[in-house]
């Protein structure tokens, strides 16, 4: 069975030696001065990121993920002095991110809880001031989902939940940096085009872009489109199983405006994704369009499941898939397609929409490295060997790559 060929992929085949000193613990002072590795037509070259426009053909459509990282880490203390960390992953009630952030009394979020053994019952609370007003916030466990919990937050004062977490929460920088969040991370761990609150990790390929670089892209007639995928903590989840079959991908929420779908139909060439989050979002579109074609699309819970690309034949063109989505949106008077994706992109996957990507260097034995291998084939090893031999900096605050077909 074809599906088994993918599920039997051994994660041990996708590793490399990454010395700790090669992990960038901090970003460069000027983000567009990072190194840029370019792989095109089988050739690897290097440059500085601020020159990236030189490598993109005219009429390229760059696709940015405009999600913004929230202050997702909240800390409470029990009367015993025990410190409890509540890490907000995604809203449950209300389930829509923007609605949840605008709530003024109560929300329920799916959360990870640190030191949960010390919090078996009762509620946690803390008191603080926002603009001089005293706010009391309480947190209570109301359910469990796998290793995560459903936490109900209740507070007074009529302030938005977004204001509360911005005031008392911490920005969740990647765990492999092995350091506390610092004030400088507030700016450096957000893209310059971040707009829509919701991520618990930055779409780090976009961290290299600056306003001058974006201006250079516009001068070259390169379009910049913005979509939204709220990055989940699962992006850092290591693959612990021997084969990929044993790994469960995380769900992430995607929003893509209808005008961008139309631009893809009008100009399907040279669509370059900025980051693996954009890759997963754009490639998920094909499978949403196929669901609509085969009348198995669920408008109440639209999603692309983990194994969907490997369980279904690609029976229609990408243009037809996009047109199906556009037709659905027009019929329902919607301005954007909203769905959840759990897609895993594995070696052997046939890319439907993108012809290239910007990305950073990823952890050994990660699903992100599998995605890179899907695009580059076994040549990913040459890329990473080159980077290690030429003093490139790795992971979230590290240097950039541009891969083109």
From TrEMBL:
A GO molecular function held by the record: S-adenosylmethionine:tRNA ribosyltransferase-isomerase activity
Alphabetical UniProt keywords: Cytoplasm, Queuosine biosynthesis, S-adenosyl-L-methionine, Transferase
GO biological-process terms attached to the record: tRNA queuosine(34) biosynthetic process
Pfam families referenced in this protein's UniProt entry, alphabetically: Queuosine_synth (PF02547)
Family matches, as SUPFAM superfamilies: QueA-like
PANTHER family: S-ADENOSYLMETHIONINE:TRNA RIBOSYLTRANSFERASE-ISOMERASE
Name of this chain's protein: S-adenosylmethionine tRNA ribosyltransferase
Organismal lineage: Bacteria, Pseudomonadati, Bacteroidota, Bacteroidia, Marinilabiliales
């Amino acid at each position: 069975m074809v599906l088994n060929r993918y599920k039997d992929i051994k994660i041990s085949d996708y590793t490399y030696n990454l010395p700790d000193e090669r992990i960038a613990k901090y970003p460069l002072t000027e983000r567009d001065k990072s190194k840029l590795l370019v792989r095109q037509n089988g050739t690897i070259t290097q440059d500085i990121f601020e020159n990236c426009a030189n490598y993109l053909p005219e009429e390229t459509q760059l696709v940015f993920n405009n999600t913004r990282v929230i202050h997702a880490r909240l800390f409470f203390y029990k009367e015993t002095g025990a410190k409890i960390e509540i890490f907000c992953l995604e809203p449950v009630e209300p389930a829509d991110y923007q609605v949840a952030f605008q709530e003024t009394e109560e929300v329920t979020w799916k959360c990870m809880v640190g030191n949960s053994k010390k919090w078996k019952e009762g509620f946690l609370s803390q008191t603080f001031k926002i603009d001089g007003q005293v706010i009391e916030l309480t947190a209570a466990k109301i359910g469990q989902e796998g290793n995560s919990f459903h936490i109900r937050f209740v507070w007074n004062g009529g302030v938005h939940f977004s204001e509360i977490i911005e005031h008392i929460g911490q920005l969740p920088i990647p765990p492999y940096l092995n350091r506390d969040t610092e004030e400088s991370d507030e700016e450096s761990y957000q893209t310059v085009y971040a707009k829509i609150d919701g991520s618990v990790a930055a779409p780090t390929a976009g961290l290299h872009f600056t306003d001058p670089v974006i201006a250079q892209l516009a001068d070259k007639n390169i379009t910049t489109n913005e979509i939204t995928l709220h990055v989940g903590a699962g992006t850092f989840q290591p693959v612990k199983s021997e084969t990929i079959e044993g790994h469960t991908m995380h769900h992430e929420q995607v929003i893509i405006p209808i005008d961008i779908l139309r631009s893809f139909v009008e100009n399907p060439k040279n669509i370059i994704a900025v980051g693996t989050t954009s890759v997963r979002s754009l490639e998920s579109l094909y499978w949403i369009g196929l669901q609509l074609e085969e009348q198995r699309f669920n408008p109440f819970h639209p999603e692309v499941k983990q194994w969907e690309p490997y369980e279904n034949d690609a029976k229609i063109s990408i243009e037809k898939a996009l047109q199906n989505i556009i037709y659905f949106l027009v019929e329902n008077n919607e301005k954007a397609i909203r769905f959840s994706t759990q897609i895993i992109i594995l070696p052997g996957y046939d890319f439907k929409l993108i012809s290239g990507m910007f990305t950073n260097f990823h952890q050994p034995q990660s699903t992100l490295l599998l995605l890179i291998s899907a695009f580059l084939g076994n040549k990913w090893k040459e890329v990473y060997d080159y980077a290690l031999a030429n003093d490139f900096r790795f992971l979230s605050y590290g240097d950039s790559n541009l891969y083109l077909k």
